[in-house]
């Protein structure tokens, strides 16, 4: 009778009785509910994403329960929902790949995390657009709490991509130049700031827009040396810029199409262009003469692949994260310009991400 009434209360309160096979004892473990942004099919229609209640599994010996604090809406998240990203989650899926959560509860065998820690998911596909999560200890990595909440929520994808691309493809010394397109993107803003901290000069291409002067000021205040529109590069070129700084050894292409060609054709002899995004959804237009006469190299970069390659090597992951956090602490790197959006207003954030000239939106749970 007592057991039956306890069981009834347990089901009512979301607590379930589990047998812990390893220790051969019976333990009470509590389940919780959270709210999550779930999609059940791949579609370009953002109405496919709906807020739903989700039952979280109980915390196991090696798992942790998180309260998600903030999570950005990135273009790659939308590509995953649309079904056009190279890795897709089994459906139904919770949206979002990046975000910061606070550890609320840890399993008995968890050694690296404590309640109160801030953590971010290591791999893509975590499903960060939710108020709570239960995951394995190894799925997340700690971020220090002395950086801003927005900084923590947006640190492990875009700034780390910028950091890797500035370090892994060309030997760049202070005074060298880097050219990029989509310079106002979150990656672009991080490139400007990390490059400035390294003593590099940046040439930053943006798309023309009604408030162009405002955007130029904004990027210059981050440390951009030159900000030019695609139209200016096409009509007058960068001759004036190259009277002041050397031609770039490194080009970063987030767009493809004609814009990628503008980055490529302005590289120095022996330079490298790294493509990390395809925002224009158009094939790269590349002049043959840059290959023939300038010996320029084309490369690609995908942070997810880099992280997967180094997933056993927490020291490498931590070294990158610490370097980026140090820049944030030192005031040399800030979170991207963004709009903080209450979680329940998620449709607004998704809509803005698929629009031209939209601001980055960060969901606040
Ligand atoms: N390979 C990797 O490891 C990696 C890592 C991080 C991000 N990424 C990729 O990098 C890209 C930027 O990500 P993010 O989070 O930094 O983006 P974001 O902050 O949302 O900014 C999006 C950027 O794309 C530009 N854009 C949007 N639509 C465009 C179009 N049709 N043609 C040309 N430019 C367009 C925007 O310019 P306007 O303001 O002019 O619209 C803006 O500069 C995405 O493709 C993302 O998937 C790749």
Automatic annotation (TrEMBL):
Residues 44-363 form the Enoyl reductase (ER) domain. It is an enzyme of class 1 (oxidoreductase). Its EC number is 1.3.1.104. GO terms for cellular component: mitochondrion. GO terms for biological process: fatty acid biosynthetic process. This is Enoyl-[acyl-carrier-protein] reductase, mitochondrial. CDD domains: ETR. It comes from the Eukaryota. Belongs to the zinc-containing alcohol dehydrogenase family. Quinone oxidoreductase subfamily. InterPro entries: ADH-like_C, ADH-like_N, ER, GroES-like_sf, Mito_Enoyl-ACP_Reductase, NAD(P)-bd_dom_sf. It comes from Carassius auratus (Goldfish).
